[in-house]
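Hi all, posting the design record for the shared folder.

TITLE: backbone redesign
STEP: 1 of 1
STRUCTURE INPUT:
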């Protein structure tokens, strides 16, 4: 049985249409923001009842529901998103099963399937290229941003990265802070749906203005911070009068920063007669994977003339290459990655390949100083990117990277050359020892 969930009114005709085509194998659930059948509750119910769910909603609305903390997506459940304007169907989760179901939904409703590469296609279904060489003129653009006004035809994904700090006087009307916040976000071009949480000084979470703002934002959590903690945070607009009244010279700005560790203030304090708001953007940590392919220089293509196939690569290499948004290394290392990709399709079509030749100064930092591959990778990871720094053998044996706002993971080279597979270890014999852990490894 397949669950069909219509989020608000626009998706109902499509949900009913698909149910009419699959009456024996589907069940329709309608969600509405105006009654007790709230979208998060209905979607959560369907995801835990059916092995496959088709949600009729815009992609931003569906992503907001999944990331809002009220909907749990069970492992293995296939989830599809059908555009209410009858344009496309997108497999969101569920791997191969979701990909195959998206083709069936597309055929039934006459919409365009948008493959995501979540799983291999079955042998009887021809593969669909993830990125066409010449996209159609009306192809949707997938944009990940907390900015408003995405433009017609865009598939906007709103990451909940914004934290709103709120201050309110005892006499503030319950709608005052929300009116001020709405005007502030509209003026600065930030999306209301990108707000992840509210923050204020201790004792103010139950203020009617704060509670009303949290309700209007879909029930986002409210953080309270002790005044003495907020007083220690540097802010651009402190107020001595506020400090004398509540024990901290800043409520809105300091609270927003306190709930967005590592982030920065994107909208300074805005005031009305009885309320203040400020907006911070939470830091998005980067990821830096140190991937060592070994130093034997043999063919890594795994083809007829290859010495070894993908199964002879160090464990974890393919996983790190597939998750990276940028692959950095010397020209020789990038050539090895190309050979691996030719055999395995390891890299996503949108992954950037950045070859850095330190001797030829092919890359520089912001000041124009040449950087080596490690320096280029660190700069990308510092700005929130997922980076795979690829080395060949000794180049990565003792490589260390400075600490920063990113996670560091190391995929060591194999203990011996990546030559032809040798004889398997006989039963009962001890396995070869694992590669030694390098002293000082950050991971």
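Okay, here is what came back for every position:
SEQUENCE:
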């Amino acid at each position: 049985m397949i669950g069909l969930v219509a989020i608000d009114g626009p998706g109902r005709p499509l949900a009913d249409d698909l149910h009419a085509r699959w009456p024996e194998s589907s069940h329709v659930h309608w969600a509405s923001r105006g009654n007790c059948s709230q979208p998060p509750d209905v979607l959560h119910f369907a995801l835990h009842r059916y092995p496959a769910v088709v949600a009729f909603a815009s992609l931003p609305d569906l992503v907001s529901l999944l990331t809002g903390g009220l909907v749990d997506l069970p492992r293995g459940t296939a989830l599809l998103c059908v555009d209410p304007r009858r344009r496309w169907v997108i497999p969101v989760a569920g791997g191969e099963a979701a990909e195959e179901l998206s083709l069936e939904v597309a055929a039934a409703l006459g919409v365009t399937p948008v493959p995501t590469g979540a799983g291999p296609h079955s042998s009887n279904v021809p593969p669909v290229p993830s990125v066409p060489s010449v996209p159609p003129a009306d192809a949707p653009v997938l944009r990940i941003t907390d900015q408003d006004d995405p433009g017609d035809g865009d598939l906007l994904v709103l990451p909940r990265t914004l934290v709103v700090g709120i201050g309110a006087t005892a006499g503030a009307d319950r709608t005052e802070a929300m009116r001020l916040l709405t005007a502030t976000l509209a003026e600065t071009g930030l999306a209301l749906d990108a707000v992840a949480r509210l923050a204020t000084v201790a004792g103010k979470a139950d203020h009617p203005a704060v509670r009303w703002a949290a309700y209007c934002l879909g029930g986002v959590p409210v953080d309270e911070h002790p005044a003495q903690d907020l007083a220690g945070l540097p802010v651009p607009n402190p107020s001595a009068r506020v400090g004398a009244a509540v024990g901290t010279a800043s409520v809105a700005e300091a609270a927003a920063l306190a709930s967005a560790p590592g982030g920065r203030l994107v909208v300074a304090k805005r005031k009305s007669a009885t309320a203040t708001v400020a907006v911070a953007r939470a830091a998005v940590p980067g990821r830096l994977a140190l991937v060592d392919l070994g130093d034997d220089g043999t063919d890594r293509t795994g083809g007829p003339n290859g010495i070894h196939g993908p199964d002879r690569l160090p464990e974890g290499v393919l996983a790190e290459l597939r998750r990276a948004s940028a692959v950095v290394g010397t020209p020789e290392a990038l050539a090895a990655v190309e050979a691996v990709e030719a055999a395995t399709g390891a890299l996503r079509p949108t992954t950037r390949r950045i070859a850095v030749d330190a001797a030829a100064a092919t890359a520089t930092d912001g000041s124009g100083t040449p950087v080596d591959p490690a320096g280029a990778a660190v700069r990308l990871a510092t700005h929130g990117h997922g980076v795979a720094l690829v080395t060949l053998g000794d180049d990565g044996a003792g490589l260390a990277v400075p600490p920063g706002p990113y996670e560091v993971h190391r995929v060591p080279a194999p203990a011996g050359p990546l030559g032809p597979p040798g004889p398997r270890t006989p039963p009962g014999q001890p396995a070869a020892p694992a590669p030694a852990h390098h002293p000082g490894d950050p991971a």
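COMMENT: The chain has three domains: 2-132, 162-281, 286-411.
Let me know if anyone wants the other runs.
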